[in-house]
Structures are given as C-alpha cells and as structure tokens.
C-alpha cells in the first residue's frame, strides 16, 4: 500500500501487509443511478486504523471478480473436501403455513435454501467461488444470504433501496476462534442464533458526560451473529457441522498425552447448609462426564467421533464441560 502524504507529496509511506494478516475480506458492487464505485475491504487483526483497510474503484476500470479471486487464492488456504452427511436441502420449499408462517415470514431470520442450486450459480454469476470450492449449506433471509462452503463463511448483503449494491463478505473457517448456538425463547421468539467469534476489532464505546449519554460498545466483526428460523433449521445439526468445520482435530497441537477416560465422578447433590452455601457462592460441583459423553454423541449429536468428555461441572444454570481440545460452556 502506497500512501502519498502532505501538500507537496514528498512524504510517501510504503506499507506491506502479509496475506496471513488478512482475516477476512469483502467486495461490494456499485449501486444504482450515480453510484459508480465498487469497494474492497480488508479486515486484519492489527490494532488502530489498520484493522480495516478500504479501497474504492471505478466500476468500469477495475475487475472486481478478478480481485476477489486473487484474495481467495491467497487468503483461503488449502482445498478441503466436502463433509459427508451434510443436509443440502436440494429442491427445498418451506412447508410452514397459517398464521405462524405469516409471522415468521415477516421477520428477517434465515431459512435453508437449495445449496446445490446456489453452488451452481455462484461458480459463474457472479463467480465468487473457487473452482474446487463447494457450497455445503445455504440460508436466505429477507434480503441477505449466508453460505457455508468447504473453505469459508460467505454473507451476501443487498444494500440500498433498489438492492443493486451488494456486499460479498468472506471469512475462512480457520480464522474463527470460538463459536456457539442459542436456542429460541418462549412463545413468539422464532430465532435460533449462531455466534461466531473472531480476532477482529470491536467498537469499545464512549463514556457519557453531562451533555451526552454514553455510547454502548458494539461487537462489530468480532462476533458475527446469524439468526435462523427455529422451525426450519436443526440447531444441533448446525452445531455439529460447525464443530466439524472449525475444530479440525487432525491439525490441533495437543499437549501431553492423557488418558481419555473420564477424570471426574459425579458428586452427590448437596443438602442443607452445604447446598445453601454452594448456591450463594456459585460453586461448581462435579457431574458424571460419562453420561454427558453418551448424550452428546447420541441424542444431541454435537461432538466429533473422537472427542471425549473428560471433566464436567455444574453451578446453578451454568455447566462447564472439559475436553482434550476445547471447553464447552452451557447456559440456560
């Protein structure tokens, strides 16, 4: 990046950013009427002004898809095989009707769509997928589309009144540092949520004063929140898919070898004053890891085949489950 500074332009800064420092990127098409600029945004894990680098191009003077292809080749990494057993929703149509179909249709949560058809389209019009890349799951909301491919998460966001300006945001799977799912609430809560945590920047907020109220912090790209229709998406199947895509067991740097047998046993439920003091202090008590291991591998299939529950603890409505490769937090 070459930055000419000053009135005379004698001071010039030459900045080099390795592709490994780019954690995500987006390209945006030109809008309608007088909007003739396309846009490129690079997201890095650097602090300060360089956490986000923007560049505008005149739409007739720059090949946006060639630029997007170049970034894919350098940022997305090696090819990955499609995961077996992933529901593609081929020829899928919503069967939900009546008043609940109307209510959920008015919301902006996303529903599954045919990933095979989406894969065929996005290899050519527009050509945002690599030749070996495949769409494994696809979801569509009111105007937005979310894609889970073999190499990355893609969000397609239509902007403006006419929807001519479209942003294509991409983030490789190996750049996510944590993930979680959240079940829908009671009655008219139709949303199940997926939370994807990154090392990208967030807005810390601003303190208030006598003349203005405080501005609360915003997660921005540090936490990507995806809303799905609870009646159309299997949340635990989605959690299992993300586990397979993000937690690549074969590439983990494991510590010292340990016995994969459970390391704790269930503690008896406390009684009397012990129960009161444990509740007041939010103390964790041990629970049987063997039962959880069976549950997470069968009824609620969210674990990989070679993952084992080693330790498990519970305090009130919070549980902590320890594996050799991760820690799972459960909240109610």
Explain what the structure shows.
Among the domains are: 2-173, no CATH class; 273-331, no CATH class. The chain has 332 residues and is of the alpha+beta class. Mean pLDDT is 82; it is low at 95-107. The radius of gyration is 24 Å and the shape is globular. The longest helix has 12 residues, at 64-75. The strands form 4 sheets. It has an 8-stranded antiparallel β-sheet. Strands 14-15-16-17 form a 4-stranded antiparallel β-sheet, with no helix packed on it. The chain has 6 helices and 17 strands. This is Bacterial Pleckstrin homology domain-containing protein. InterPro entries: PHb, PHb_sf. Pfam families: bPH_1. Residues 1-75, 116-198 form the Bacterial Pleckstrin homology domain.
Question: What's the structural blueprint in terms of helices and strands?
Answer:
Layout: E1 2-5, E2 11-14, E3 22-28, E4 37-44, E5 52-58, H1 64-75, H2 98-105, E6 111-113, H3 115-121, E7 135-140, E8 144-149, E9 152-159, E10 165-172, E11 178-182, E12 191-197, E13 223-229, H4 235-246, H5 272-281, E14 285-286, H6 289-297, E15 311-315, E16 318-322, E17 327-331
Antiparallel strand pairs: 1-2, 3-4, 3-10, 4-5, 6-7, 7-8, 8-9, 9-10, 11-12, 12-13, 14-15, 15-16, 16-17
